[in-house]
Amino acid sequence: MARTNLRSVSIARHQDKPALSKGQKAFNSLIRQIEKRRKQLHAWETVTPAFRQRYVDELVPLERVSATLQVRMVRCLDQAYAKNELTRAERRKMAIVIANLAGDLINEDVDEGEELKAIYDKYSPTNYDSQMAAEVDGMKSMLEAVLGVDLGDDLDLGSPEDLLQRAQAHIQQSQAEWAAKNAEREAQRAKRKKSPKQQAAETRAQEQQAQISLSIREVYRKLASTLHPDRETDPQERDRKTRLMQRVNEAYQKNNLLQLLELQLELEHIDQHALNSMSEERLKHYNTILKEQVRELDQEIVHVESAFRYAYGIDPFEPVFPDTVLRNLAVDLKEIRLNIRTLEQDLLHSKTSGT
Is the distance from CB of 30 to CB of 291 less than 8 angstroms? Predict the structure, then answer.
């Protein structure tokens, strides 16, 4: 993760040239985009441990308590159903409530799963295992149609996880086959004689990439020549330069131009005037590098958010933000505590009333 407390890099207006050029504006815009994404990643780094702590210490125990109480409620309703005081309409409504509650608890993988399954089958017009098998079979048909593959007839129709793993394996195999075919096509295309226009475009792309690499290497060399710890005789200063050189090497290995420029500013190897005076050609190369950094940061944010959703069972399409997840968790905690109190009161009332 890049440091967020370094001196800010930007091109400023000055009296001789009050209006920024297109390249300078693009440079400043890209720097702001990178800083915004850095802050977002830093926010995720900060909030995730706090969220995990509250989730494990508070929400998970409450969910266990809630599940235990709900199982007791299913048993209580099952017993109440057997009594003759209920009307036919009340029995229909209670049967629906019992089946829905038991089915939800089975899906939560509680210890009383087999007992709940028997209760579900008692009050539902369909058998639980048969219903799950039909749902998995429907998912299988849909995935086969979408993926254009045969997922086989040896699937465990009681296990959606087995189906999803099989589909994922087919997707990975298809991707590998596509990559192999694409590589073969590219190799064949490379063997064919290129037209003068294609050769010119390829040469320009190679030259641009060489200039981009040179731009980063120039900044790196200036920092490395000054910070090289082996040239320092003072032990404390050698340690300081060693730490700085580690940051420089890390930034260079990642092609992180912004971090290298920030280090230059921090060490006063460049000043604001040098930034303001960068040539348009240099800016062009720098902007290309910074655009790639924005793209990489976007990918990192997507990965962090996807991992967070997966870890805590959040819907894949539900937006998550580091500044709201703790607030949302607090709402969930308040709601589950309220539900627990309601369940406890209902169970107590059922016990005292004998229903």
Answer: yes
Is 141 contained in some domain?
Answer: yes
Over residues 174-223, the pLDDT tens digits come to: 778 888 888 787 777 666 666 676 666 666 666 566 666 666 777 777 77
3-state DSSP of 98-145 = HHHHHHHHHHCCCCCHHHHHHHHHHHCCCCHHHHHHHHHHHHHHHHHH
Distance of CA 231 to the CA centre of its chain: 44
Q: What is the pLDDT of residues 216-255, one digit of tens each?
A: 777 777 777 777 767 677 788 778 778 888 888 888 887 7
What's the CA gap between 102 and 112, in Å, rounded?
10
The one-character DSSP state at 14 is: B
The whole-angstrom distance between residue 313's C-alpha and the CA centroid of its chain comes to 12
CA distance 183 to 190: 10
What range defines the domain where residue 161 resides? 130-192
What distance in Å separates the CA atoms of residue 98 and residue 104, rounded to the nearest whole number? 10
Domain count for the chain, please give it: 1
**Position 152 in a domain:** yes
The answer to whether the CB of 79 falls within 8 A of the CB of 353 is no
8 A C-beta contact, residue 276 and residue 288: no
> What pTM was estimated for this model as a whole?
0.66
Which amino acid is present at 350? S
Q: Does any domain span residue 139? A: yes
Distance, in Å, from the CA atom of 157 to the CA atom of 135, rounded to the nearest integer, reads: 8
Q: Give a yes or no: residue 162 inside a domain.
A: yes
Angle 109-110-111 from CA coordinates, rounded to 5°: 120
